[in-house]
From TrEMBL:
Keyword Metal-binding: yes
Name the UniProt record assigns to this protein: Protein neuralized
Organism: Caerostris extrusa
One protein family per Pfam: zf-C3HC4_3
CDD domains: mRING-HC-C3HC5_NEU1
Gene Ontology terms for molecular function: ubiquitin protein ligase activity; zinc ion binding
Keywords (A to Z) from UniProt: Metal-binding, Repeat, Zinc, Zinc-finger
């Protein structure tokens, strides 16, 4: 376009990881509100800055009251979340003036609107819809829609938006999302987000001679390396023990361990390099997919899309702020409980996996962390045999009210969905017992939902009485 000066700065996009979040947040536009045209089940509140779906789970389509600019943040706060429905908010853009849709709005944005010309939208992951969290998204000049939660960028969500015309924001207040509110980006404070210059103490990682050392080095007794199959924006060095994300890239940075993890094996990762100009979080997880069967062409840009693959995938976001030299340890016990230890300071249950199948540890280096080093692992075979003979104690009887206990750990008999109720059912046909009857029944209603353990289709739920 050739524009220069302040006009160019106002409309510049964030397609490069070198762009600061502050450049995208501050603008001189009028705060967004909801358009008078909306779905039949939508009510506008707070002078049209908030929208609520007052019945059912659909007919919740809403639009912004004015066109949004390329690169302008659309910020949405989740005001109310329901546990009665499956699915979550749909977000996107339209090139059609909402006034043209008066009395014509369908039940759903996806696929009803997206099958029509000039509409682009996609559903966010259900786990991202949390009360009081702030979702933001924007479109860049290339037509790619970026998104994130609470100023942690998750990367490109989808693409193909026509940016040569005016665009209105599209929201479908669907499923578990009941009420949302537009938030003025100027009120957000991104200063210090993922700032590697923070003066946090680096626990015991610098010795008296000023050299890098690890307080865990004496525990490492197994040599490990990353798998030769990795994302297209990663290069491996030091005999496959160092994974480095390519310069000016913040996507497709997948790496896998060379071999499956053994139960009670503790794998150590060290943060090797940080780029404070990149926003987002490190993704990590567990998979039953042998990396040898993959190539970088099938690895998605959005890490959450791995969950759509037929293999068993568990994806987690690590929102911690790390320093160069920090050491993170990952392990799986005989009950499938995954634990993480940072600099030898804490040991917290994160989630549960199916320990009956081979499981690889994987990472997607999104955000500031641009290099990780696989130090090795510690494995005590004698301890492994002793641990396998232990008898688990029964869990405490008190309810946690949906919170995984005072210690942050989930007990063996707690539902992996709500973490509050006891497991009292089995899934047919896989037979896994991992949920309470209420949560399992809700998943069964949605034909797309699968067993959290093995990803098999839920055909039926059988209540169990102990």
């Amino acid at each position: 376009m050739g524009a220069e000066g302040s006009s160019n700065q106002k409309h510049r996009t964030a397609s490069s990881c070198d762009d600061k979040m502050t450049a995208r947040v501050k603008n001189n536009y009028d705060p967004l509100r909801f358009h008078q045209i909306h779905g039949d089940n939508v009510k506008l509140l707070k002078s049209a800055s908030a929208a609520c779906r007052y019945e059912g789970f659909c007919k919740g389509i809403a639009f912004s009251n004015r066109p949004v600019m390329v690169g302008e943040l659309v910020c949405i706060k989740f005001l109310e979340i329901s546990t009665n429905w499956s699915g979550a908010l749909r977000i996107g853009f339209t090139a059609n003036d909402p006034m043209s849709m008066k009395s014509k709005l369908p039940r759903y944005a996806c696929p009803d609107l997206t099958n029509m010309p000039g509409y682009w939208a996609k559903a966010i992951a259900e786990r991202m819809a949390k009360k009081d969290s702030i979702l933001y998204y924007y479109v860049d000049q290339n037509g790619d829609v970026h998104y994130g939660i609470d100023l942690d960028e998750h990367g490109v969500f989808f693409g193909g938006v026509n940016t040569s015309c005016r665009l209105w924001a599209v929201l479908d207040i669907y499923g578990n999302t009941v009420a949302v509110e537009f938030v003025d980006p100027n009120s957000l404070n991104p200063e210090g987000i993922n700032d590697s210059s923070r003066n946090n103490e680096n626990v015991s990682l610098i010795n008296e001679a000023g050299q890098q050392s690890s307080p865990l080095k004496d525990e490492i007794n197994q040599v490990l390396s990353f798998h030769s199959i990795h994302g297209r924006n990663v290069s491996l060095r030091t005999h496959g023990t160092t994974a480095l994300r390519k310069h000016d890239c913040n996507i497709h940075a997948y790496v896998f361990t060379q071999c499956p993890l053994r139960l009670l094996e503790r794998v150590f990762i060290k943060i090797g390099r940080i780029n404070p100009k990149c926003y987002g979080n490190l993704f990590y997880g567990i998979t039953s997919c042998d990396p040898q069967t993959l190539n970088h062409h099938v690895l998605p840009e959005n890490t959450d899309d791995l969950l759509d693959r037929p293999e068993y995938w568990i994806v987690r976001t690590d929102a911690n702020v790390y320093e160069v030299g920090d050491v993170i340890a990952y392990s799986i016990n005989n009950d499938g409980e995954v634990t993480v230890m940072r600099n030898g300071e804490y040991n917290t249950a994160i989630f549960h996996v199916d320990p009956t199948q081979p499981l690889w540890l994987f990472f997607n280096m999104i955000g500031p962390i641009s290099e990780i080093n696989l130090l090795g692992s510690y494995f005590n075979d004698n301890y492994n045999r002793l641990e396998s003979m232990k008898v688990a104690l029964p869990p405490k009887s008190e309810k946690s009210g949906g919170v995984p206990g005072a210690s942050g750990q989930q007990t063996l008999n707690e539902c992996v969905i709500c973490f509050g109720e006891q497991i009292d059912c089995a899934i047919y046909r896989c037979g896994h017992m991992c949920m309470c009857y209420s949560c399992a029944s809700k998943l069964k209603i949605n034909a797309r939902e699968k067993c959290p353990i093995c990803r098999e289709i839920i055909e039926d739920v059988i209540r169990i009485y102990r």
